[in-house]
């Protein structure tokens, strides 16, 4: 058995490792050892006995520390190999008095050793440190054809979003669903299990629909039984429609309709499939909004938090798990940018909460936040905000922003109740830096605040997010280039498929077997139907892609085409094949176009 860097949490003995430990088993497995090995083992036992007393077995599971490894200490073989050390007897740097620095991390009682970075600095290798188990596992080998297609995860996500965009409703389940709502058709309900929600005292429903004029997918937010006019809100609606921000679901239109057999107010927003709210993503579905300031709640008898809130918050943190600080900063930067755009336009969001923020994408890649349902509260509250009180609403936005970040940091919805703020901030300080704590304290303070004052608090983290966004954009462009090349080759295959084996053209049943078309038939066999010397099909994706690329570019390279009976041999260039392809396909296209003209007449 190869040596493993394993230190178990036993009661440490002064005479060496425990007899039942794997380390002791390894050190005693060789019965016949040389004198040099015996001396090395004796020194190792003494050194281990001395160094065991310095180990803190009560350290946290995620603790990370720097370990100095002398020559006689036990070191994993992988670590020795990674340091380019031929044997364990030469484990010192050029300066004999300086031992090599390694890193170790204790996870669930198991200590993993990590080599320094490849550049020689005393830092753990970042690729290894991200996942301790990955240090012991083999890396996956990338497929040679992976450069021809989009990544599997991205393709799967896009296909899933496309499936959600084209889903059709069940007529038996939704018999009263209208076919058209003004200029929108293909109406599909988005409410979970068909249950409508409430905003203030109004019942609401959400639908996906298609704009009949543009063909775009849109989200319709329906306010049931709305018996007011919205003419006076036209300037406000136009102001919201002008806001086009990456972290705001854009408002497209607002109108009143009777398509649902009542007077319904419809808000039209951009549609972002496969999105969920922050509360759905980061909180348990059974957790009650106990004390959270939900601006859409109309229940004055909502339950209040009990006195032992500290234990409750800690219990929520334990059950939900803490978010990383990078995730919190990512959320803070995106939401602050959205609020900056809203406040800069002289508007206020009026009710920022976890349910109003949509999340699209995976946390392992890059989650996109979008504030939803803008302008809804302005109209439903029926109080045209004057310039004198708009500043007050903007201050409330900043307070709600601070509560949202605090709820995410504590992973508890009761943490943001007014009576629990001090306790929640103190608990948050145990796991996060002072910077994020100071940001939340500023947002929750009673002083006059402004959204632009958050930028100095964010500091250089903004550049980190900008760099991540640009890298993600480069990755998407790279994936797009793959699909663009695939589309170009697909058009070539469409032309070939339209010509090859065509049974009849212009009353000529032999059209596809004569002239240029016969050459294209032989090329089709050269492209797809080759076999090995043993007669087995020869499948080579790179051969197909390379050949199609040369055909598309009209290369001067020549190939030898054989008929299936091997009685006909043609040596042609890709340039000649391309001319044959274009001429033959143009004949088909011209006849098809003339038939369309005849039908139109």
UniProtKB/TrEMBL annotation:
Biological processes, Gene Ontology terms: mRNA processing; nuclear-transcribed mRNA poly(A) tail shortening; positive regulation of cytoplasmic mRNA processing body assembly
Region described as Knob domain: spans on this chain: 499-601
InterPro entries, A to Z: Kinase-like_dom_sf, PAN3, Pan3_CK
Entry-linked Pfam families: Pan3_CK
CC annotations in GO: P-body; PAN complex
GO molecular function annotation: ATP binding; poly(A) binding
UniProtKB keywords: ATP-binding, Coiled coil, Cytoplasm, mRNA processing, Nucleotide-binding
Protein localization: Cytoplasm, P-body
Record bears the keyword Iron: no
Stretches of the chain forming a coiled coil according to its record: 460-498
Keyword ATP-binding: yes
Domain Pan3 C-terminal knob: 451-588
Binding locations of ATP: 221
Domain notes: Contains a pseudokinase domain. The protein kinase domain is predicted to be catalytically inactive because some of the residues important for catalytic activity are substituted and it lacks the equivalent of the binding site for a peptide substrate. However, it has retained an ATP-binding site and ATP-binding is required for mRNA degradation, stimulating the activity of the PAN2 nuclease in vitro.
Function: Regulatory subunit of the poly(A)-nuclease (PAN) deadenylation complex, one of two cytoplasmic mRNA deadenylases involved in general and miRNA-mediated mRNA turnover. PAN specifically shortens poly(A) tails of RNA and the activity is stimulated by poly(A)-binding protein (PABP). PAN deadenylation is followed by rapid degradation of the shortened mRNA tails by the CCR4-NOT complex.
Entry's family note: Belongs to the protein kinase superfamily. PAN3 family.
Subunit structure: Homodimer. Forms a heterotrimer with a catalytic subunit PAN2 to form the poly(A)-nuclease (PAN) deadenylation complex. Interacts (via PAM-2 motif) with poly(A)-binding protein (via PABC domain), conferring substrate specificity of the enzyme complex.
Name of this chain's protein: PAN2-PAN3 deadenylation complex subunit PAN3
Organism (species): Sipha flava (yellow sugarcane aphid)
């Amino acid at each position: 058995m190869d040596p493993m860097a394993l230190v178990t949490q036993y009661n440490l003995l002064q005479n060496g490792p425990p007899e039942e430990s794997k380390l002791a088993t390894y050190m005693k497995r060789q019965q016949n050892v040389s004198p040099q090995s015996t001396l090395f083992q004796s020194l190792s036992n003494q050194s281990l006995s001395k160094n065991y007393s310095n180990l803190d077995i009560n350290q946290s599971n995620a603790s990370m520390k720097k370990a100095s490894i002398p020559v006689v200490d036990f070191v994993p073989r992988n670590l020795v190999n990674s340091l380019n050390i031929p044997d364990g007897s030469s484990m010192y740097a050029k300066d004999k008095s300086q031992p090599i620095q390694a890193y170790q991390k204790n996870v669930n009682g198991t200590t993993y050793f990590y080599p320094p970075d490849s550049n020689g600095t005393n830092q753990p290798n970042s690729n290894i440190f991200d996942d301790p188990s990955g240090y012991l596992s083999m890396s996956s080998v990338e497929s040679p054809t992976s450069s021809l297609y989009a990544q599997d995860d991205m393709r799967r996500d896009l296909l899933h979003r496309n499936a959600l965009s084209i889903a059709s409703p069940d007529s038996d389940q939704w018999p009263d669903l209208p076919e058209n709502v003004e200029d929108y058709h293909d109406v599909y309900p988005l409410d979970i299990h068909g249950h409508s929600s409430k905003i203030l005292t109004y019942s609401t429903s959400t639908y996906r629909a298609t704009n009949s004029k543009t063909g775009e997918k849109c989200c319709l937010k329906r306010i049931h039984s709305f018996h007011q006019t919205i003419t006076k809100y036209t300037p406000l609606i136009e102001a919201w429609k002008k806001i086009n921000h990456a972290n705001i679901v854009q408002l497209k239109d607002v109108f009143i309709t009777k398509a649902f057999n009542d007077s319904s107010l419809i808000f039209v927003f951009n549609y972002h499939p496969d999105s969920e709210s922050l509360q759905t993503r980061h909180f348990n579905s059974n957790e009650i909004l106990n004390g959270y300031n939900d601006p859409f709640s109309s229940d004055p008898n909502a339950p209040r938090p009990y006195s032992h809130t500290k234990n409750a918050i800690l219990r929520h943190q334990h059950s939900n798990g803490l978010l990383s600080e990078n995730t919190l900063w990512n959320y803070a930067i995106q939401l602050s940018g959205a609020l900056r755009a809203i406040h800069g336009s002289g508007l206020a969001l009026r009710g920022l909460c976890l349910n109003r923020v949509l999340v699209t994408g995976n946390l392992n890649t890059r989650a996109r936040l979008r504030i939803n349902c803008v302008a809804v509260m302005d109209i439903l509250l029926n109080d045209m905000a004057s310039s004198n009180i708009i500043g007050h609403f903007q201050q409330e936005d900043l307070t709600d922003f601070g509560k949202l970040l605090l709820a995410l940091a504590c992973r508890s919805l009761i943490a943001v109740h007014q009576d629990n703020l001090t306790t929640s901030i103190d608990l948050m300080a145990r796991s996060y830096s002072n910077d994020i704590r100071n940001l939340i304290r500023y947002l929750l303070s009673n002083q006059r605040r402004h959204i632009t004052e958050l930028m100095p608090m964010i500091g250089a983290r903004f550049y980190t997010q900008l760099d991540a966004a640009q890298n993600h954009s480069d990755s998407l462009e790279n994936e797009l280039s793959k699909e663009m090349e695939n589309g170009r080759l697909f058009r070539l295959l469409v032309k070939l498929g339209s010509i090859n084996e065509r049974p009849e053209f212009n009353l000529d049943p032999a059209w596809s077997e004569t002239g240029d078309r016969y050459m294209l038939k032989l090329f089709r066999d050269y492209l797809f139907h080759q076999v090995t010397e043993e007669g087995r099909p020869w499948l080579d994706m790179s051969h197909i892609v390379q050949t199609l690329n040369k055909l598309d570019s009209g290369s001067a390279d020549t190939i030898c085409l054989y008929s299936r009976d091997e009685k006909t041999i043609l040596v042609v260039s890709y340039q000649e094949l391309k001319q044959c392809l274009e001429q033959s396909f143009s004949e088909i296209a011209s006849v098809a176009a003339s038939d369309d003209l005849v039908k139109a007449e």
